[in-house]
From TrEMBL:
<protein>
    <submittedName>
        <fullName>Acyltransferase</fullName>
    </submittedName>
</protein>
<dbReference type="Pfam" id="PF01553">
    <property type="entry name" value="Acyltransferase"/>
</dbReference>
<feature type="domain" description="Phospholipid/glycerol acyltransferase">
    <location>
        <begin position="94"/>
        <end position="236"/>
    </location>
</feature>
<keyword id="KW-0012">Acyltransferase</keyword>
<keyword id="KW-0808">Transferase</keyword>
<dbReference type="InterPro" id="IPR002123">
    <property type="entry name" value="Plipid/glycerol_acylTrfase"/>
</dbReference>
<dbReference type="GO" id="GO:0016746">
    <property type="term" value="F:acyltransferase activity"/>
</dbReference>
């Protein structure tokens, strides 16, 4: 639960919510059908032009969302800090890690990235393909879709592990035909105090990172990306819900981006089968997460002073 006020919605907030909901619904129905229609043509013939057109349509949809944020939610103050060594552009290829506190995180990423970075994708489960419209849109837009088997299934049939790896490799390699940003929430789930306590996380502000997904992406794409980017999102007044955000109840959002140098030994390592490499990689990620935890402490202290 956010630290935002829990007062009953005022007429102004109700009006704002109706405006946001109506515009987003209308925008989705306007932009969605062309993406799906063009996507169907790929069943017969792959076309880079179709991919580029779909990305433009999707960015147009995001532009409407960002217009709402800037014009209907003007009370939200954005503090964005970018590492001076991080040269972002719309033609780049980026892997991105981020802390995860709220469904709003993805909207923050889209708001920041729309004019600075290529369209952000993230790993999704193959099962989402069966969700009408949403699953098909993910597939059409090139989101890596994973067929993951459980540990029990792999124990019965070890070959499934390598089949999963091959599926992941094909999904990632499909991104290389165009600029991309591939996002990985290393915590694997949204941070809550309950999850933090249950994990006995050694980090004050973060859950334990799951290094396997990042290791996989770096193994497949590492020598062909322009940068590994770490995004840190802070909500000084508490992590909001999605409804709170779109009602304008989030006074401030801070975003910090830094470039992470990738050691040469990381590229080409076998995380799944090489225990020594896996331990070394996990230690590297733990160090990155320690630095991130310390950064969040500094940012929290800064906003407590300025609040």
């Amino acid at each position: 639960m956010s630290s935002q006020s829990n007062k009953q919605p005022t007429l102004k907030k109700i009006s704002k919510g109706l405006t946001v909901g109506s515009v987003m619904t209308g925008s989705t129905f306007f932009h969605g059908p062309p993406v799906l229609a063009l996507g169907l043509t790929k069943l017969f013939k792959k076309s880079r032009k179709v991919d580029e057109t779909n990305i433009k349509i999707t960015n147009s949809w995001l532009t409407v969302n960002n217009w709402l944020i800037d014009n209907v939610l003007p009370n939200t103050q954005w503090d964005i800090t970018i590492d001076e060594d991080l040269d972002l552009n719309m033609q780049g290829r980026y892997l991105m890690t981020c802390n995860h506190q709220s469904w709003v995180d993805t909207t923050v990423n889209q708001y920041f990235g729309l004019t600075r970075m290529p369209l952000t994708r993230f790993f999704t489960k193959w099962e989402l393909i069966f969700i009408p419209f949403v699953g098909q849109a993910f597939k059409i837009l090139g989101f890596p879709m994973m067929k993951r088997h459980s540990k029990e299934q792999i124990a019965k049939n070890p070959e499934l592990k390598y089949r999963d790896m091959e599926e992941a490799r094909k999904s990632c390699e499909q991104l290389l035909s165009q600029p991309f940003t591939l996002l990985n929430y290393l915590e694997g789930t949204r941070f809550t105090p309950e999850k933090h306590a249950q994990q006995q996380s050694p980090y004050k502000n973060l859950l334990k990172p799951k290094a396997g997904g990042l290791a996989l992406a770096l193994n497949i794409l590492g020598d062909q990306i322009d940068a590994l980017v770490d995004m840190t999102i802070i909500y000084p007044n508490g992590a909001p819900g999605y409804g709170e955000f779109w009602l304008g109840d989030v006074p401030r959002i801070a975003v910090d981006l830094r470039k992470i140098e990738i050691p040469e030994w990381v590229l080409g390592g076998n995380y799944e089968d090489d225990a020594e490499f896996r331990e070394k990689f996990q230690n590297w990620v733990d160090q990155l997460w320690t630095e991130k935890d310390q950064l969040i402490d500094r940012l929290k202290a800064q906003y407590q002073v300025n609040k």
